[in-house]
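Quick one, C-alpha cells below. Sequence please?
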C-alpha cells in the first residue's frame, strides 16, 4: 500500500489531468480542483462577507475576492462558446467582468479600493511577475537565451514599423491625419502601458506641444485601453491559428530546435520557498540597479536572471525551486491577478468613450500592424511567426505588465513572460525615444 502511495505521489500528471478546469474521476465539474458544489459554498461565503461589509481588510480580504471571483469568472468564460474560442475565454471575462463590476457599482467601493491598493501599492502585480520571470528564465535552456540574444529586437522593431505604417495608411483612408494616427494612437499603444508609457509620453508631448500632461493623458488613455482589448482578442485568435496551422508556431517556443527544460522533479515545499526567495531577491536587485541605470527594473531583472542562467551561477536546487514556485503562482493566481487587473487598471469609461467606428478601426489597424511586422521580421531571423507576433507584437501593443499577463494567458503561452517583458519594457523605452524624435517633425 505504501509503495502504491509513493508511486502516486511521484507520478507526473498527464496533459489532460493538468488542465485547470478538468473533470475529476467521477466526472464531476471542478473549479480550482474543488467540486463545483464546494466552490459554490466558498463563493457564497465570499459574497456574504463582501456585501455585509465584513470582508477583512488588507491582503486577506483582497486576495480572497480576487481568487474566488476571478476563478468564478474564468470558469464561466472558459465555457462560453464564442468567448472561449475567439475572445480569450476566461482571461478576458475575468478582466472585463471585474471591470464591469466596478463600472456598474456591483462591487462595493471599499472592496474596489482594497483590491486597487493591493494590486498597486501592495505590489501583488510585481510579486506575480517576479515569480514568472525568475522561474521561466531559470527553467529555460541556456542555449536558447544565447541563441535568441539581440535578434529578439528585430521582431520588436518590425512591430513598431508595422504598427506605424498601417496606422498612417488606415488614418488617411478614414480621415485621420498622419500626426493623429501616429502620435495620438499608434505610439501610445506601443508605449509600454501607463506608468512606463502614457505618463512619461504625456510629459514629452507637453514639452513639445504646449498643453498640460493631464490633457494628453486624457487623450492617450482610450487608445491604450482599446489597444489592450484588441491585443487580448488577437492573442486568442493567434492561439487558434497555431492549432490550425502548427507550422507557424513553436507551441510556446520562440525558435525551432530548442525547448524549455522540463526536468521532472517532485514538488518540494522547501524548494518552493527557495524559489520564492530567489524571485524576491532578483526583483530587489532590479530595483537597486534601476536607481542607477535608466532602465525599467523589470528589464534589469530579466538581464540579471539571464546572465545568472547563462553563466551557470545558480545552484540546481534554486533553479528547481524557482521553477516550482513559478508553476504554483501561474496555476493558482493567474485568474486572481486578471480580476485585479480589471479592477485596478481597466477603465470601461475610457474604453466606451472611444467606441466610434473610425477610432476602433484605427486602433485595430495598429495592433494588426504590430502583429504582422513582428511575425514577418521574426520569421526572417528564425523565430516562429506566431510566438514572435504574440511577444514582440501584442506585448508591445498591450498595457505593459498587466497586459502581458492577459495576452499570454489568452494565448496560453505564459512561459514566454520574459520575452513579453522585454517587448513591454525595453520596447516601451524605444517608443519614448521615438516619440521625442518624431514630435518635432509634426510641430
Amino acid at each position: 500500500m505504501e509503495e502504491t502511495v509513493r508511486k502516486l505521489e511521484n507520478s507526473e500528471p498527464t496533459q489532460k489531468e493538468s488542465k485547470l478546469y478538468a473533470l475529476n474521476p467521477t466526472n464531476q465539474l471542478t473549479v480550482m480542483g474543488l467540486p463545483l458544489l464546494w466552490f459554490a459554498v466558498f463563493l457564497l461565503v465570499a459574497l456574504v462577507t463582501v456585501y455585509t461589509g465584513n470582508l477583512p481588510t488588507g491582503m486577506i480580504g483582497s486576495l480572497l475576492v480576487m481568487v474566488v471571483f476571478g476563478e468564478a469568472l474564468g470558469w464561466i468564460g472558459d465555457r462560453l462558446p464564442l468567448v472561449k474560442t475567439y475572445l480569450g475565454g476566461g482571461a478576458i471575462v475575468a478582466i472585463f467582468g471585474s471591470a464591469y463590476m466596478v463600472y456598474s457599482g456591483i462591487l462595493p467601493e471599499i472592496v474596489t479600493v482594497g483590491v486597487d491598493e493591493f494590486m498597486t501599492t501592495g505590489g501583488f502585480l510585481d510579486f506575480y511577475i517576479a515569480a514568472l520571470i525568475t522561474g521561466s528564465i531559470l527553467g529555460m535552456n541556456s542555449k536558447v537565451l544565447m541563441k535568441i540574444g539581440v535578434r529578439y529586437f528585430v521582431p520588436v522593431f518590425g512591430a513598431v514599423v508595422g504598427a506605424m505604417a498601417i496606422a498612417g495608411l488606415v488614418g488617411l483612408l478614414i480621415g485621420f491625419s498622419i500626426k493623429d494616427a501616429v502620435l495620438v494612437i499608434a505610439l501610445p499603444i506601443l508605449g509600454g502601458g501607463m506608468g512606463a508609457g502614457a505618463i512619461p509620453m504625456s510629459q514629452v508631448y507637453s514639452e513639445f506641444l504646449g498643453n498640460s500632461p493631464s490633457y494628453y493623458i486624457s487623450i492617450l488613455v482610450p487608445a491604450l485601453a482599446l489597444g489592450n482589448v484588441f491585443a487580448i482578442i488577437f492573442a486568442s485568435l493567434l492561439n487558434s491559428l497555431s492549432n490550425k496551422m502548427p507550422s507557424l508556431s513553436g507551441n510556446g517556443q520562440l525558435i525551432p530546435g530548442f525547448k524549455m527544460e522540463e526536468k521532472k522533479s517532485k514538488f518540494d515545499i522547501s524548494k518552493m520557498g527557495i524559489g520564492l526567495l530567489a524571485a524576491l531577491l532578483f526583483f530587489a536587485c532590479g530595483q537597486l540597479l534601476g536607481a542607477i541605470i535608466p532602465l525599467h527594473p523589470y528589464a534589469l531583472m530579466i538581464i540579471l536572471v539571464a546572465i545568472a542562467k547563462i553563466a551557470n551561477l545558480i545552484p540546481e536546487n534554486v533553479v528547481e525551486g524557482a521553477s516550482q514556485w513559478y508553476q504554483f503562482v501561474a496555476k493558482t493566481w493567474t485568474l486572481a491577478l486578471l480580476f485585479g487587473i480589471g479592477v485596478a487598471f481597466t477603465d470601461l469609461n475610457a474604453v466606451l468613450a472611444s467606441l466610434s467606428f473610425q477610432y476602433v478601426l484605427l486602433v485595430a489597424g495598429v495592433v494588426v500592424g504590430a502583429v504582422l511586422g513582428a511575425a514577418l521580421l521574426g520569421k526572417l531571423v528564425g523565430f516562429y511567426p506566431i510566438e514572435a507576433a504574440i511577444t514582440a507584437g501584442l506585448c508591445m501593443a498591450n498595457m505593459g505588465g498587466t497586459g502581458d499577463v492577459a495576452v499570454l494567458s489568452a494565448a496560453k503561452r505564459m512561459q514566454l513572460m520574459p520575452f513579453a517583458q522585454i517587448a513591454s519594457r525595453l520596447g516601451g523605452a524605444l517608443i519614448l525615444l521615438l516619440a521625442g524624435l518624431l514630435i518635432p517633425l509634426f510641430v
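The CA atoms of residues 231 and 394 lie 5 Å apart. DSSP finds 20 helices and two strands in the chain.
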